[in-house]
Prior knowledge:
Helices cover 76% and strands 0% of the residues. By secondary structure, the protein is mainly α. The termini are far apart. Helix 1 crosses helix 2, helix 1 runs antiparallel to helix 3 (77-102) and helix 3 (77-102) crosses helix 5 (122-131).
Amino acid sequence: MIKSSWYELIGLLGVVSSLVFVGIEIRQNTSAIKGATHQTIAEQINDLTLTIASDERLAKIVSSMYSEGKKREDMSPEDRLSLDFLLLTGYRRVENIFLQYEDGILDERAFNRIGMDTYKTDFAIGTWEEFKSGFDEDFINFFEELRDNQIVKINK
């Protein structure tokens, strides 16, 4: 009888230590996923920036959006399309951050690094108005609140 109790106690301790081990592994895995996600977001913006910096035509039209305050109607159809697609890439990146924030993978700090000034230009606002119907309504509301007020509000 005493022998049986010892076996049960040893078995219980084995189960408890296994659960503790699994919990630690899950926590470490979650941290690794968060780190990889932050790294991926940083790489995305670096790739986008490098694309603009290494393409003289793109650099000129992006520069005109900032320094000259060009609007959509001020650009050739080709330049407008290039800048639209560049901005849509950025909007999708912000949407991806939003989805990962909703899922609890990222926290509010992720929204501090998205370069909101770009999305406040007249051209970018025009692009957003033209293409926002291709985004989820929750993201549309969130993005417009973030862009206009720099406030992160998510209904979880």
